[in-house]
User: Fold these one by one.
Assistant:
Number 1:
Amino acid sequence: MKVVLKNLTKKFPPINKKAAEGVTAVNNFTFEIPDGKLVGLLGPSGCGKSTALNLICGLLTPTSGKIFFGDDDVTELPPERRGVGLVFQNYALYPHLTVRQNIIFPLENLKGKDKLTKAQMNEKALEIAKLVQIDSLMDRKPGELSGGQQQRVAIARALVKMPRVLLLDEPLSNLDARLRLQTREEISRIQKETGITTVFVTHDQEEAMSISDIIVVMKDGVVQQVGKPQDVYDEPTNLFVAKFLGTPPINVFSGCVKDSKLYIGEDFVLDANGVSDREVYVGIRPEGFVLTESGKFNCELSRVEVMGRDISVVATNAHSENPTVRAIISAENKLDLAAKTVSFDLKPNKVFIFDKTTEERIK
Ligand code: ADP
Ligand code: MG
């Protein structure tokens, strides 16, 4: 089921009289979630991710704009008539019910032609439990399950009615690191197996990048960029997106373009043909450095961290916006650890320049 958001806006009124202005949590969202894809809604805390999700599921009504599921305008429909499955961070299972009863719960108030017999409900619950691999736990109560297992039950409960759209709001945040990794692979598998159009909300860029067909990067209620994870990483539209994606994060420097040449401080680092003279921010991905004695870009070496396959060169530079500069280079490089300075050439496709005022990318 394709989901289309058209000029979707949600404003919250001021919380009290002192607060002069309200918040525009979702500001003029227009994008399409293709049928059967997993879309990651990504942005820092408070940027409007949950609000966007709650608009899609119908728990909130928009201030303006429209939501379509396929060709159906669902903007005015209550949540129970939209055919959505919801999973939250805190599982929200019924503690006094067994796993089976929790999964069956959404099926119990089906009416008319959709009404199911007890046997049919049990059959459906078992089928879904098998899909999320909790079928051996059906008679336990939530308190007798690990966090990861509880979240699987919540996913099973969201899937049992075969929703048209599955909505997940930070579903992995309460899990420890290892379970988070495992459960995210599970969600990806389940999504592919069922083919249900899915929106996955997270503030964790790595999580979003690894699981999503498409990511939507948000800031302050405004969509910054929509695209395949690799494309957004390779071609960020502005400084915010460049900084938000990638670990270790992108290195940012103050620089300038003069006579079609890009400078960081005194160092002429790359050609910048076609860019008019101006102050810029220079973003360099950690993998964008090539260690060379004759390199054009000079930094003060702080230390070297060995990571097996790669080496992380930690350095400083007077024009860096971050306290340290981090370059990832192959472990095959021989590094003179006694040296005070390191010199790099830069890979042009790993260097982005941004207008210093607008912070928009200059191509
Ligand atoms: P996220 O999920 O990305 O952390 P939210 O969608 O929860 O962000 O919130 C976006 C913004 O809207 C925040 O500034 C938040 O304080 C505000 N907000 C969310 N819900 C309400 C509400 N019910 N009333 C007023 N402001 C709200
Ligand atoms: Mg949220």
Number 2:
Amino acid sequence: MYKHKSADKKKLFLLAKKVQKNAYAAYSNFYVGAAAQAEDGSIFVGCNVENAAYGVTQCAERAAISALIAAGKKKVIALAVVGSVPDFLTPCGACRQWLREFMLPQAPIYLCNDAGVQKTSSIAELL
Ligand code: THU
């Protein structure tokens, strides 16, 4: 858990990129990192964790949200997700459903590649 008084887009990207390195992607070799900011400014990170039973793989976004909820926070006010893709990564359907539960419709979702934030979206837009 990382604390910032005024976490911004850049910090969320950098933290997502940092945790991306810890991904366990033994089956896809696709590393993903996510950083979720709570209402009080604290930031929680997650990476994808795969399994031989691929269906129970945990996505980075859901890992970050789980950490935020486990810490007693209630809402995600901003989220960054980064994958090694040319343009930007968008959350999968299951993650979109999770984001729908914990984010306001217009709250920023920063879609990133290795170079930085490439697009700012929202759960309203993604759904
Ligand atoms: N993955 C994520 O963690 N988040 C996304 O938004 C897209 C996909 C993971 C799941 C799996 O471990 C790997 O990336 C390939 O799909």
